[in-house]
Amino acid sequence: MSADTQTIAAEPVSAPVAKKQKKQLSEGARAERRLGFILCAPAVIIMLAVAAYPIIYSIWLSLQRYDLRFPDQAKFIGFSNYGAVLSSRYWWEAFFNTVVITVVSVVIELALGMALALVMHRTIWGRGGVRTSILIPYGIVTVVAAYSWQFAWTPSTGYLSRLFGDAAPLTSHWQAMAVIILAEVWKTTPFMALLLMAGLALVPEDLQKAAKVDGASAWQRFTQVTLPLMKPAILVALLFRTLDAFRIFDNIFILTSGGHNTGSVSILGYDNLFTALNLGIGSAISVLIFICVAIIGFLFIKGFGAAAPGSEMR
Amino acid sequence: MQKDYPFAADIKASLASAAIRPLTPAYQNISIVISHSVSPPASIKPESTEKTMHSQISDALNSKGLVP
Lengths: 314, 68
Fold this sequence. Notes:
The complex is a heterodimer of chains A (314) and B (68). With 314 residues, chain A is an all-alpha fold. Helix content of chain A is 74%, strand content 1%. Chain A has a two-stranded antiparallel ribbon. The longest helix of chain B is centred in the last third of the chain and has 16 residues, at 46-61. Chain B is elongated, with a radius of gyration of 16 Å.
Protein backbone atom coordinates (compact mmCIF):
# COMPACT_ATOMS: atom_id res chain seq x y z
CA MET A 1 0.00 0.00 0.00
CA SER A 2 2.73 2.47 0.98
CA ALA A 3 4.54 1.85 -2.30
CA ASP A 4 1.35 2.71 -4.18
CA THR A 5 0.84 6.03 -2.40
CA GLN A 6 4.46 6.92 -3.08
CA THR A 7 4.11 6.40 -6.82
CA ILE A 8 0.90 8.46 -6.84
CA ALA A 9 2.59 11.26 -4.94
CA ALA A 10 5.68 11.10 -7.12
CA GLU A 11 3.80 11.48 -10.40
CA PRO A 12 3.07 15.23 -10.38
CA VAL A 13 6.73 15.90 -9.55
CA SER A 14 8.07 13.74 -12.36
CA ALA A 15 5.68 15.09 -14.99
CA PRO A 16 7.22 18.61 -15.39
CA VAL A 17 10.68 17.05 -15.47
CA ALA A 18 9.63 14.85 -18.37
CA LYS A 19 8.27 17.92 -20.18
CA LYS A 20 11.58 19.76 -19.85
CA GLN A 21 13.48 16.77 -21.17
CA LYS A 22 11.28 16.53 -24.26
CA LYS A 23 13.41 18.97 -26.25
CA GLN A 24 16.66 17.21 -25.50
CA LEU A 25 15.71 13.83 -26.95
CA SER A 26 18.60 11.91 -28.38
CA GLU A 27 18.78 10.93 -32.04
CA GLY A 28 17.89 7.31 -31.20
CA ALA A 29 14.92 8.24 -29.03
CA ARG A 30 13.53 10.48 -31.75
CA ALA A 31 13.83 7.73 -34.36
CA GLU A 32 12.13 5.35 -31.95
CA ARG A 33 9.28 7.79 -31.42
CA ARG A 34 8.86 8.25 -35.17
CA LEU A 35 8.71 4.48 -35.62
CA GLY A 36 6.09 4.37 -32.87
CA PHE A 37 3.91 6.93 -34.65
CA ILE A 38 4.23 5.05 -37.95
CA LEU A 39 3.27 1.77 -36.29
CA CYS A 40 0.22 3.40 -34.67
CA ALA A 41 -0.89 5.14 -37.86
CA PRO A 42 -2.92 2.31 -39.48
CA ALA A 43 -4.96 1.75 -36.31
CA VAL A 44 -5.52 5.50 -35.87
CA ILE A 45 -6.62 5.91 -39.50
CA ILE A 46 -9.11 3.02 -39.22
CA MET A 47 -10.48 4.45 -35.95
CA LEU A 48 -10.89 7.85 -37.58
CA ALA A 49 -12.71 6.29 -40.52
CA VAL A 50 -15.13 4.12 -38.55
CA ALA A 51 -15.64 6.21 -35.39
CA ALA A 52 -14.67 9.84 -35.86
CA TYR A 53 -16.17 10.31 -39.32
CA PRO A 54 -19.72 9.12 -38.39
CA ILE A 55 -19.65 11.17 -35.19
CA ILE A 56 -18.58 14.33 -36.99
CA TYR A 57 -21.10 13.68 -39.80
CA SER A 58 -23.96 13.29 -37.31
CA ILE A 59 -22.93 16.52 -35.55
CA TRP A 60 -22.97 18.20 -38.98
CA LEU A 61 -26.42 16.71 -39.74
CA SER A 62 -27.75 17.88 -36.38
CA LEU A 63 -26.99 21.49 -37.34
CA GLN A 64 -29.12 21.33 -40.47
CA ARG A 65 -32.77 21.12 -41.38
CA TYR A 66 -32.38 17.72 -43.02
CA ASP A 67 -35.73 16.00 -43.46
CA LEU A 68 -35.89 13.19 -46.00
CA ARG A 69 -39.49 14.17 -46.83
CA PHE A 70 -38.48 17.72 -47.69
CA PRO A 71 -35.09 17.04 -49.31
CA ASP A 72 -35.11 20.29 -51.29
CA GLN A 73 -35.38 22.40 -48.16
CA ALA A 74 -32.20 21.08 -46.49
CA LYS A 75 -30.24 24.00 -45.10
CA PHE A 76 -27.95 25.00 -42.25
CA ILE A 77 -29.97 26.19 -39.26
CA GLY A 78 -27.43 26.26 -36.42
CA PHE A 79 -28.64 24.99 -33.06
CA SER A 80 -32.41 25.13 -33.80
CA ASN A 81 -32.69 21.34 -33.76
CA TYR A 82 -31.19 21.26 -30.26
CA GLY A 83 -33.67 23.94 -29.21
CA ALA A 84 -36.54 21.89 -30.65
CA VAL A 85 -35.39 18.73 -28.85
CA LEU A 86 -34.62 20.35 -25.49
CA SER A 87 -37.90 22.27 -25.43
CA SER A 88 -39.92 19.17 -26.31
CA ARG A 89 -41.96 17.39 -23.66
CA TYR A 90 -41.19 14.06 -25.34
CA TRP A 91 -37.43 14.41 -24.87
CA TRP A 92 -37.75 15.12 -21.13
CA GLU A 93 -40.25 12.28 -20.64
CA ALA A 94 -37.86 9.87 -22.41
CA PHE A 95 -34.92 11.29 -20.45
CA PHE A 96 -36.74 10.79 -17.15
CA ASN A 97 -37.67 7.20 -18.11
CA THR A 98 -34.06 6.48 -19.06
CA VAL A 99 -32.72 7.86 -15.78
CA VAL A 100 -35.24 5.82 -13.76
CA ILE A 101 -34.40 2.62 -15.66
CA THR A 102 -30.65 3.27 -15.39
CA VAL A 103 -30.55 4.08 -11.68
CA VAL A 104 -32.96 1.36 -10.50
CA SER A 105 -31.53 -1.41 -12.67
CA VAL A 106 -27.88 -0.59 -11.89
CA VAL A 107 -28.53 -0.48 -8.13
CA ILE A 108 -30.33 -3.85 -8.19
CA GLU A 109 -27.66 -5.31 -10.47
CA LEU A 110 -24.87 -4.17 -8.14
CA ALA A 111 -26.46 -5.84 -5.11
CA LEU A 112 -27.40 -9.05 -6.94
CA GLY A 113 -24.16 -9.12 -8.91
CA MET A 114 -22.13 -8.83 -5.73
CA ALA A 115 -24.01 -11.74 -4.20
CA LEU A 116 -23.52 -13.86 -7.33
CA ALA A 117 -19.83 -12.87 -7.51
CA LEU A 118 -19.31 -14.03 -3.92
CA VAL A 119 -21.07 -17.31 -4.74
CA MET A 120 -18.93 -17.82 -7.84
CA HIS A 121 -15.77 -16.87 -5.94
CA ARG A 122 -16.42 -19.08 -2.92
CA THR A 123 -17.76 -22.22 -4.61
CA ILE A 124 -15.39 -25.10 -4.20
CA TRP A 125 -17.47 -27.95 -5.57
CA GLY A 126 -18.65 -27.76 -9.19
CA ARG A 127 -17.08 -24.36 -9.79
CA GLY A 128 -17.31 -24.54 -13.58
CA GLY A 129 -20.96 -25.61 -13.49
CA VAL A 130 -21.96 -22.84 -11.08
CA ARG A 131 -20.16 -20.15 -13.09
CA THR A 132 -21.61 -21.37 -16.38
CA SER A 133 -25.19 -21.50 -15.08
CA ILE A 134 -24.88 -17.98 -13.63
CA LEU A 135 -23.58 -16.65 -16.95
CA ILE A 136 -26.33 -18.23 -19.13
CA PRO A 137 -28.68 -15.17 -19.19
CA TYR A 138 -25.81 -13.02 -20.43
CA GLY A 139 -25.19 -15.49 -23.27
CA ILE A 140 -28.74 -15.28 -24.59
CA VAL A 141 -29.42 -12.75 -27.34
CA THR A 142 -31.20 -9.74 -25.77
CA VAL A 143 -33.93 -9.66 -28.42
CA VAL A 144 -34.72 -13.36 -27.91
CA ALA A 145 -34.85 -12.89 -24.15
CA ALA A 146 -37.04 -9.81 -24.55
CA TYR A 147 -39.49 -11.75 -26.75
CA SER A 148 -39.75 -14.50 -24.16
CA TRP A 149 -40.43 -11.90 -21.45
CA GLN A 150 -43.07 -10.32 -23.70
CA PHE A 151 -44.82 -13.66 -24.28
CA ALA A 152 -44.58 -14.52 -20.59
CA TRP A 153 -46.33 -11.25 -19.64
CA THR A 154 -49.03 -11.41 -22.36
CA PRO A 155 -52.44 -12.52 -21.03
CA SER A 156 -53.67 -15.90 -22.37
CA THR A 157 -50.23 -16.94 -23.69
CA GLY A 158 -47.89 -16.19 -20.82
CA TYR A 159 -47.25 -18.20 -17.68
CA LEU A 160 -46.20 -15.15 -15.66
CA SER A 161 -49.38 -13.33 -16.65
CA ARG A 162 -51.48 -16.33 -15.60
CA LEU A 163 -49.57 -16.53 -12.33
CA PHE A 164 -50.78 -13.02 -11.45
CA GLY A 165 -54.40 -13.66 -12.50
CA ASP A 166 -54.25 -12.74 -16.21
CA ALA A 167 -52.42 -9.51 -15.50
CA ALA A 168 -51.35 -7.35 -18.45
CA PRO A 169 -48.47 -5.33 -17.01
CA LEU A 170 -47.20 -4.19 -20.41
CA THR A 171 -50.30 -2.05 -20.87
CA SER A 172 -49.69 0.48 -18.10
CA HIS A 173 -46.81 2.85 -17.53
CA TRP A 174 -45.25 1.88 -14.20
CA GLN A 175 -45.89 -1.85 -14.54
CA ALA A 176 -44.33 -1.83 -18.00
CA MET A 177 -41.32 0.07 -16.60
CA ALA A 178 -41.01 -2.60 -13.88
CA VAL A 179 -41.08 -5.37 -16.49
CA ILE A 180 -38.43 -3.57 -18.56
CA ILE A 181 -36.21 -3.15 -15.49
CA LEU A 182 -36.76 -6.81 -14.56
CA ALA A 183 -35.76 -7.97 -18.05
CA GLU A 184 -32.71 -5.69 -17.98
CA VAL A 185 -31.63 -6.88 -14.53
CA TRP A 186 -32.11 -10.56 -15.45
CA LYS A 187 -30.07 -10.05 -18.59
CA THR A 188 -27.08 -8.10 -17.33
CA THR A 189 -26.58 -9.08 -13.69
CA PRO A 190 -24.19 -11.88 -14.82
CA PHE A 191 -22.03 -9.27 -16.56
CA MET A 192 -21.89 -7.27 -13.34
CA ALA A 193 -21.08 -10.44 -11.39
CA LEU A 194 -18.28 -11.29 -13.81
CA LEU A 195 -16.65 -7.87 -13.44
CA LEU A 196 -17.04 -7.98 -9.64
CA MET A 197 -15.58 -11.49 -9.50
CA ALA A 198 -12.45 -10.17 -11.23
CA GLY A 199 -12.31 -7.59 -8.43
CA LEU A 200 -12.72 -10.23 -5.74
CA ALA A 201 -9.71 -12.07 -7.12
CA LEU A 202 -7.65 -8.95 -6.29
CA VAL A 203 -8.35 -9.26 -2.55
CA PRO A 204 -5.48 -11.25 -0.96
CA GLU A 205 -6.58 -14.21 1.13
CA ASP A 206 -3.96 -13.32 3.78
CA LEU A 207 -5.77 -10.08 4.65
CA GLN A 208 -9.00 -12.00 5.19
CA LYS A 209 -7.18 -14.45 7.46
CA ALA A 210 -5.50 -11.64 9.39
CA ALA A 211 -8.86 -9.94 9.92
CA LYS A 212 -10.32 -13.25 11.07
CA VAL A 213 -7.51 -13.65 13.60
CA ASP A 214 -8.26 -10.14 14.88
CA GLY A 215 -11.84 -11.29 15.51
CA ALA A 216 -13.67 -9.54 12.66
CA SER A 217 -17.09 -10.97 11.82
CA ALA A 218 -17.93 -12.08 8.29
CA TRP A 219 -19.85 -8.83 7.65
CA GLN A 220 -16.98 -6.70 9.02
CA ARG A 221 -14.50 -8.57 6.82
CA PHE A 222 -16.73 -7.88 3.83
CA THR A 223 -17.25 -4.16 4.46
CA GLN A 224 -13.84 -3.29 5.99
CA VAL A 225 -11.48 -5.51 3.96
CA THR A 226 -13.11 -6.76 0.77
CA LEU A 227 -15.09 -3.71 -0.35
CA PRO A 228 -12.32 -1.06 0.00
CA LEU A 229 -9.85 -3.29 -1.85
CA MET A 230 -12.21 -3.95 -4.74
CA LYS A 231 -13.39 -0.35 -5.04
CA PRO A 232 -11.65 0.12 -8.42
CA ALA A 233 -13.35 -3.00 -9.82
CA ILE A 234 -16.75 -1.90 -8.45
CA LEU A 235 -16.37 1.54 -10.03
CA VAL A 236 -15.40 0.08 -13.41
CA ALA A 237 -18.37 -2.33 -13.25
CA LEU A 238 -20.73 0.54 -12.33
CA LEU A 239 -19.30 2.73 -15.09
CA PHE A 240 -19.75 0.05 -17.76
CA ARG A 241 -23.26 -0.85 -16.67
CA THR A 242 -24.42 2.77 -16.27
CA LEU A 243 -23.20 3.62 -19.77
CA ASP A 244 -24.89 0.52 -21.19
CA ALA A 245 -28.13 1.03 -19.26
CA PHE A 246 -28.40 4.65 -20.36
CA ARG A 247 -28.38 3.56 -23.99
CA ILE A 248 -31.05 0.84 -23.42
CA PHE A 249 -32.87 0.09 -26.66
CA ASP A 250 -33.51 -3.55 -27.56
CA ASN A 251 -35.45 -4.58 -24.44
CA ILE A 252 -37.83 -1.62 -24.68
CA PHE A 253 -38.16 -1.95 -28.45
CA ILE A 254 -39.40 -5.55 -28.15
CA LEU A 255 -41.39 -5.23 -24.92
CA THR A 256 -43.39 -2.02 -25.52
CA SER A 257 -41.80 -0.20 -28.51
CA GLY A 258 -41.98 2.88 -26.32
CA GLY A 259 -45.75 2.61 -25.85
CA HIS A 260 -47.46 3.86 -22.68
CA ASN A 261 -44.71 6.44 -22.30
CA THR A 262 -41.97 3.90 -21.61
CA GLY A 263 -39.57 5.04 -24.34
CA SER A 264 -35.92 5.73 -23.57
CA VAL A 265 -33.87 8.43 -25.27
CA SER A 266 -32.52 5.83 -27.72
CA ILE A 267 -36.08 4.83 -28.68
CA LEU A 268 -36.91 8.52 -29.20
CA GLY A 269 -33.86 8.89 -31.43
CA TYR A 270 -34.82 5.80 -33.43
CA ASP A 271 -38.41 6.99 -33.89
CA ASN A 272 -37.33 10.40 -35.10
CA LEU A 273 -34.62 9.05 -37.39
CA PHE A 274 -36.37 6.07 -38.93
CA THR A 275 -40.12 6.59 -38.44
CA ALA A 276 -40.22 10.32 -39.01
CA LEU A 277 -37.15 10.28 -41.32
CA ASN A 278 -36.04 13.59 -39.83
CA LEU A 279 -32.26 13.27 -39.92
CA GLY A 280 -31.66 16.71 -38.39
CA ILE A 281 -33.75 16.19 -35.24
CA GLY A 282 -32.71 12.52 -34.97
CA SER A 283 -29.02 13.42 -35.16
CA ALA A 284 -29.50 16.14 -32.56
CA ILE A 285 -31.03 13.52 -30.22
CA SER A 286 -28.12 11.15 -30.91
CA VAL A 287 -25.58 13.86 -30.18
CA LEU A 288 -27.39 14.74 -26.94
CA ILE A 289 -27.29 11.05 -25.90
CA PHE A 290 -23.56 11.04 -26.71
CA ILE A 291 -23.09 14.12 -24.52
CA CYS A 292 -25.04 12.51 -21.64
CA VAL A 293 -22.91 9.37 -21.89
CA ALA A 294 -19.74 11.49 -21.94
CA ILE A 295 -20.92 13.35 -18.81
CA ILE A 296 -21.63 10.05 -17.01
CA GLY A 297 -18.18 8.75 -17.94
CA PHE A 298 -16.53 12.00 -16.85
CA LEU A 299 -18.37 11.99 -13.49
CA PHE A 300 -17.33 8.41 -12.80
CA ILE A 301 -13.69 8.88 -13.76
CA LYS A 302 -13.07 12.36 -12.31
CA GLY A 303 -15.72 12.41 -9.58
CA PHE A 304 -15.41 8.94 -8.11
CA GLY A 305 -11.90 8.15 -9.34
CA ALA A 306 -12.79 5.11 -11.42
CA ALA A 307 -9.92 3.83 -13.53
CA ALA A 308 -10.50 4.74 -17.15
CA PRO A 309 -11.07 1.66 -19.33
CA GLY A 310 -7.74 0.57 -20.69
CA SER A 311 -5.65 2.30 -18.05
CA GLU A 312 -3.87 0.27 -15.41
CA MET A 313 -5.83 -0.61 -12.28
CA ARG A 314 -4.19 0.45 -9.04
CA MET B 1 -74.35 -11.05 -43.00
CA GLN B 2 -75.82 -9.41 -39.90
CA LYS B 3 -75.26 -12.60 -37.96
CA ASP B 4 -71.65 -13.12 -39.03
CA TYR B 5 -70.67 -9.44 -38.74
CA PRO B 6 -72.80 -7.89 -36.01
CA PHE B 7 -70.74 -4.69 -36.26
CA ALA B 8 -71.46 -4.21 -39.98
CA ALA B 9 -73.86 -1.31 -39.39
CA ASP B 10 -71.28 0.57 -37.32
CA ILE B 11 -68.63 0.16 -40.01
CA LYS B 12 -71.06 1.40 -42.67
CA ALA B 13 -71.94 4.43 -40.56
CA SER B 14 -68.25 5.29 -40.06
CA LEU B 15 -67.61 4.92 -43.80
CA ALA B 16 -70.34 7.50 -44.46
CA SER B 17 -68.32 10.13 -42.56
CA ALA B 18 -64.91 9.06 -43.95
CA ALA B 19 -62.44 11.61 -45.23
CA ILE B 20 -59.17 11.30 -47.13
CA ARG B 21 -55.97 11.21 -45.10
CA PRO B 22 -54.09 14.49 -44.85
CA LEU B 23 -52.21 14.96 -48.11
CA THR B 24 -48.71 15.83 -46.99
CA PRO B 25 -45.21 14.39 -47.20
CA ALA B 26 -45.05 14.65 -43.40
CA TYR B 27 -48.03 12.31 -43.04
CA GLN B 28 -46.16 10.02 -40.65
CA ASN B 29 -45.42 12.85 -38.21
CA ILE B 30 -48.88 14.39 -38.44
CA SER B 31 -50.73 11.13 -37.93
CA ILE B 32 -48.52 10.24 -34.95
CA VAL B 33 -48.93 13.60 -33.21
CA ILE B 34 -52.71 13.61 -33.80
CA SER B 35 -53.22 10.07 -32.52
CA HIS B 36 -50.92 10.78 -29.58
CA SER B 37 -52.75 13.95 -28.52
CA VAL B 38 -56.23 12.39 -28.70
CA SER B 39 -55.24 9.27 -26.79
CA PRO B 40 -56.54 8.35 -24.28
CA PRO B 41 -59.86 9.96 -25.30
CA ALA B 42 -60.68 10.75 -21.67
CA SER B 43 -57.76 13.22 -21.49
CA ILE B 44 -58.95 15.38 -24.40
CA LYS B 45 -59.57 19.01 -23.42
CA PRO B 46 -61.06 20.45 -26.59
CA GLU B 47 -59.44 23.91 -26.36
CA SER B 48 -55.89 23.00 -25.32
CA THR B 49 -55.74 19.72 -27.24
CA GLU B 50 -56.65 21.57 -30.41
CA LYS B 51 -53.88 24.09 -29.74
CA THR B 52 -51.26 21.38 -29.10
CA MET B 53 -52.28 19.57 -32.26
CA HIS B 54 -52.11 22.78 -34.27
CA SER B 55 -48.63 23.70 -33.05
CA GLN B 56 -47.33 20.14 -33.41
CA ILE B 57 -48.61 19.86 -36.98
CA SER B 58 -47.00 23.14 -37.99
CA ASP B 59 -43.77 22.01 -36.29
CA ALA B 60 -43.91 18.78 -38.29
CA LEU B 61 -44.32 20.70 -41.55
CA ASN B 62 -41.25 22.76 -40.66
CA SER B 63 -39.22 19.62 -39.74
CA LYS B 64 -39.00 20.90 -36.18
CA GLY B 65 -41.32 18.55 -34.33
CA LEU B 66 -40.39 15.42 -32.44
CA VAL B 67 -42.50 12.31 -32.68
CA PRO B 68 -43.05 10.49 -29.41
